[in-house]
Protein 1
Amino acid sequence: MDYASGSPVDERVLEDMKPYFSEHFGNPSSFHSYGFKALEAIKNARMRVGGLIEALPEEIVFTSGATEANNLALIGAAARYKNRGSRIVISSIEHISILNVCKELSRQGFEIKYAPVDKDGILDLDALTELVDDKTMLVSVMTANGEIGTIQPIKKAAEIAHDKKALFHTDATVAAGKIPLDVNESDVDLMTLSSNDLYGPKGMGALYVRRGIRLKPIIIGGGQEGGMRSGTENVPGIVGMGKAAELAKVEMRSEADRLTKLRDRLINGVLDSVPESYLNGHPIQRLPNNANIRFSYIEGESLLLSLDELGVQLSSGSACAAKTLEPSHVLIALGLKHEEAHGSLVFTLGKYNTGEQIDYVIQQMPGVVKRLRAVSPLTPKELM
Ligand code: PMP
């Protein structure tokens, strides 16, 4: 139940990728049939990835993942459009690949402002309106948060950005394939996508760049990807991401319905059976596959280890920030105390999770929590 950290590649995706390793190994820039075959495959994938978000194929730039797409969006826009202003506004719960890029941009002289979220993790649109001024060059708000699953009002955020002539970027890494996305309807200029979150291969992503917007590339070389991302293309990876996007588009609605039912069964089952457990994030406006639950008086890490022994794999926050001992900045932004943030578990469900697995977790959780609370100095007597 940790799909956000890593998802299996769909068998159908793998089958489509296979010929592009050894059989159709050409370089898409070559002027011969091997090259044409690879180029054709990339064209097809670009169409499929664009199709998932209602973008044109030529608006898709393939990258090595969501981190690179976020880097290209922010650094590329900052370099190209700095004459529009020096302010960048982001939400306070962005992924570390946005936060750290902004720290770097701040060292380069950009002024970074953080828009707060409410106690459920929903962006404060009034605060955003106040922060976006005439010298704002870019606004970046994630479509949904990977830790607490909260879905943001990106259409309204884009409107606020555009009112001040700022560009609008959204990191849709964990939202794509889970909820319908339409770059035209929500009026987004730049959107980050990741392949593995769609059951495609890792190390693949894409940035949607609205027609007419030019970014300064961060990887410079032979001019591939319309000059925005040089380097010989990862053809099998691109083919895989394309197939994954096509499958997501077709299967998203029915899978989202199934996951929503599993998610709610899990949330209700755990909250009902474990005293002093609480849901983090918005109860309804959240991704169909995300549950984030806080257990008072215990550490998330000890819960993770106990549950792993029982065959259940979860996360205590973003896998990308797991190397730091700091509590999740997302949970702190909701107003939780450090010890509350430390006692939280992230469940991200996926394709191969079943109702039986959910029931098993609900069955095991009270005993695990009770055992850990029994050895925690923080636990009040009545819960022992
Ligand atoms: N953005 C968000 C919202 C994420 O959750 C993640 C991690 N899956 C990333 C960006 C970075 O993805 P990657 O490590 O694949 O580049």
Protein 2
Amino acid sequence: MTLDKMEKLSLEQTVSRSALVELEGVVLIEPVHRTFDQVQKFKARPDDLLIATYAKAGTTWTQEIVDMIQQNGDVEKCRRDTTCKRHPFLEWSFQNPPSARYSGLELAEAMPSPRTIKTHLPVQLVPPSFWEQNCKVIYVARNAKDNLVSYYHFHRMNKGMPEPGTWDEFVEKFMNGKVLWGSWYDHVKGWWKAKDKHHILYLFYEDMKENPKQEIQKIVKFLDKDINEEVLNKIVYNTSFEIMKENPMANYTKDFEGIMDHSISPFMRKGAVGDWKNYFTVAQNEKFDEDYKKKMADTSLVFRMEL
Ligand code: A3P
């Protein structure tokens, strides 16, 4: 047996998936739940920018766009570190294995201003200081079906996630909101409502795919930045799926070693709209649509499931 294989085997034996705990009806993993009191007490600063998403909605993509805007298109500066070190992942706390150790809180507290912070928290669990300080928030939402497919593959490749079960089981869990960070439906609706009260730019993955330049310009404006056409084009190019897939500082191949296995499914998987059609059976799709109508009846939010 090669050393590489032996290391892999021993990780499979030692890294077990975390237990799940519910907090106010929202599913969290145990290490995140354990530090949640401290997360609630987090002291946001007025110039913090929060990037909030339901997991797999295009967080990393948005983070790269934001960083490139903040660095005025300087690719080298954006490669100073990996995404999760450049932008602390607020609630993420993970101890084992040591190669995957991470504390978003520690990173954020040690970081000089201005900070850009990432969260997957539903709006009601965001630390109150972000609202008290009137921080800017960029929220990105992705249609439920593509979000679900992406989340399923992410569970398969990432031992930091709960066990996904079969595809069929995962679809059920997603529909019932019994997945990490809770119900997708409540998440996107909660943030949609919050945008009327707070400083929130609400974006859609599908719009970003269709017209990245236009959506990047919205972010530029929201951040009160001024960039020229050349820089804008550079940002569009360097934040495309194809370029980010090959960027080790953005594709998660340098982080969470031992818990992410890109050979099962790469972090930068397909980056497409409508991939759900390759996974949902006709029966699953009908059931999903019927349930979706009910769950989304009380919102003006509209998603595009294809382009
Ligand atoms: P897929 O699994 O559908 O490919 P997050 O960063 O929130 O975890 O989201 C990850 C999803 O966003 C993955 O979706 C990933 O491929 C996609 N993604 C990442 N960078 C992207 C980009 N530049 N353009 C389009 N999609 C991107």
Protein 3
Amino acid sequence: MAEGSAVLVIDDNIDDREVYRRMLARAPGANYVVYEAENGDEGIALNAQKRPDCVLLDYSLPGRDGVGVLEEILKLDPSANVIMLTGQGSETIAVEVMKGGARDYLTKDTLSPETLHRCIQSAIMHGDLAAKLEQKQQSLEIFTRAMAHDLKEPLRTIKSFSRLLQASPSLAHDDHDLLGYVLSAADHMEELIVKVSGFSKLEASGDLEAKPVSLSAIVDQVERNLREQISSRGAEIERGPLPQVMGDGTLLVQMLQNIISNAIKYCEDEVPRVRISAQGEGMLCRIAVSDNGPGIARDHRELIFQPFKRLVGRGIEGTGLGLAICRRIAQLHGGAIWCEDADGGGGTTFIMELPLALSEADKAPADAASPRQEEQRADRIGRVAEVLLVEDSPADVQLLKIKLMKREKVTFNLHLASNGLEAMRLLQERATGGHDPLIDLILLDINMPIMDGFEVLEALSRDARLKTIPAFILSTSSDEDDMERARRLGARAYMIKPPTRQQLELALRDVQTLDLQPCGDALILYGEQTRHQANATI
Ligand code: ATP
Ligand code: MG
């Protein structure tokens, strides 16, 4: 690596520059190419032009201090390897310089050819590693993004159309079963996509923002999420007093959900009995989840925390990622997770250690709509709503028409736009035109060419006439970040494809300008009375 490394020396003192030049010429086994600059501006320009492997920067330059020059160099070239040189050593300067982004810091008095050479080489190596890490992080980001959006899209289409076909009365019995296989493979693949992207994201995430969270609220949520599994197996879940811990509620639900779901899923021969308890151990809370399942052999108790390691065959569904995710979640909380024999033999106990929170009242559940609000909604008589679907996939447009409008009999006037720009044009035309009824609701896909769903939300919020129109995201992504981003940008609800009557009902709960009213076995979506009546045919 020393062969032909280029070094830029930025120092106003000609004697010092000469000393570095000589030292570098004497460096063992190295062949440095040296550039020189006598002030900050010249150095910044030369760095941009030559892109040397390393910059030796004098801390006290006339006119402009070394830290300012360092900042400027890194602004233009964030990967620059800069070593700061000062006349005398000082802790404060060292901290300031390293915080400013220098790779290292050397005092001129103690400099020798060897130290200088070693320091330059390690700065270059540090830079190479940082660049590789950056590259890896970028690939991981692309991969995670592809997982969350692009892979789910075609899968959702396969599932939705298979379901439609399966419900068709003219389908032969055998074909019905064959479609069942397609659907269960697609379910498995979807689960894999969700888990792998969740795992990659956790791998990439650094610190989490921990807040006091109530463990009993977490377990309540888990029980709600697992309602179907619990009731279908007749599982008994027992719990002792549970304290508050410091952590991220969503991640803790994910962790306990996998542990409790495993406890039920792998207990095949008996009625599953799961016991959840917790006790304080100094600053830590030790949570134990015990089951009466088959137990886990001592040799396998670490193995199961590795990604994709399973002890059972495909007869029991699963991806083998659950416990790997749990371990990462525990680590992100500064805690740990492992498993032991359940008390009294047979079965397993999973132990999780998390930081204990100083006690704080549980948060009240989100307010439900008040009876008065419900009344106001029911009283409103409007016209059939104008709904704009912004969607680039013809298959998804079809799906909304067949599933939501035809099969589930939800009636509204549908308008289409195949990307954000087209949608904005249509909305603006209607807002200024004065002839066509205004759009009452926008259903917005995220991933679209030209202008995506997030950009549309941004554009809507900037337009005084359009920002009052409720916009719901309708996406394949169930990614928490996407949901949060959509919420921040003003989306009133987040629906996951395929759109269902139930999802729409839920999404409309907090929207005062729209009302879903039964009409025979159909539902009609009404919009608020506006300046024009729509000629809707129902
Ligand atoms: P996923 O959670 O991703 O849907 P999974 O349940 O197979 O799939 P993990 O939760 O990581 O993956 O579990 C790994 C393996 O550990 C399981 O396949 C199972 O063999 C074993 N295991 C986990 N929990 C228990 C348990 N409570 N009792 C017996 N075996 C268990
Ligand atoms: Mg599992």
Protein 4
Amino acid sequence: MHQKSLENYLNSQKELINKHLELYLSELVSSCELEGLKGKGIQEPAKILFDSMKYSVIGGGKRLRPILALAGTEFVNGDIKNTIPTACAIELIHTQSLIHDDLPCIDNDDFRRGQPSNHKVFGEPMALLAGDALLAYAFHLITTKTPKEVSPRIILKVMEEISGSNGFIGICIGQAADIQYTAHQNLNEDILQYIHINKTGALIKSAIKTGVLLGNGTKKQLSVLTAYASYIGLAFQIIDDILDVTGQKSKIGKSIGKDKHLCKATYPAIYGIEESKRKAETYIDMAINLLKNFGKEADILRALAKYIINRQL
Ligand code: GRG
């Protein structure tokens, strides 16, 4: 796939996701009838909380995870309209993890998605609550917005997958390990992989798996794409670590050099930039290799894997 057509694909999928995120958020406001709260003294807190949620969701982001969910459905020839609510839900969960990750008690980051972090604008308590509300709304969206033609059995599987990857084993344990191994003396690749696979890879894997599930993919397709997702998820975080050293704040929209400053467990900290890049490339090659028995239907997945390794933001 040519660079230009991948760019067009990413832009059009991003637009589709953004349109639905705007819609779902606006429905959240109408459902709590902010207008109806006028004069009762409770409109103000509801508005602040909502503004805080919207600020982080609408304020930028590549929308990679929802795009991967849609790509999973397209790969199995499913209908992406069945996947859109779940894809948006995954973006809400991702946004929640970014808001909480930036809090002073975790990574203490002042800048995200090209603007001051949520707590810098709304304060720590509101940032915490905005994250909580986004997480809950994600599951609400899956259950209320998935089209009726999707069987409840599939919706349950999607809920099981996403609640699993965002829970104890998954993003939380990954972040806990990230904290625990900060400034640790005896880091090794097993530890790094454990952190990256959980902290970042778990949600990426869930995105693709739920895309396949909602597209009614076969067990075989699910298992191949699950393995593909594991490799690209790991590579994605290695590149993220590299960009923290070599990237530009104006491009990637977040602070640079934080990992070194905080003594984080990263690939560049152990292997340096070149070797880390080689390792990420190896994982991307392994992901692409898994698709060797598929034809044109896997072109987007191959292109997305290459995009992950070449990305500058
Ligand atoms: C319960 C979901 C949940 C989380 C709580 C705070 C926390 C535990 C986890 C933090 C996980 C985290 C922020 C991992 C880093 C993942 C990562 C590489 C983020 C950057 O992703 P991009 O580049 O960002 O896709 P954009 O802004 O483009 O969406």
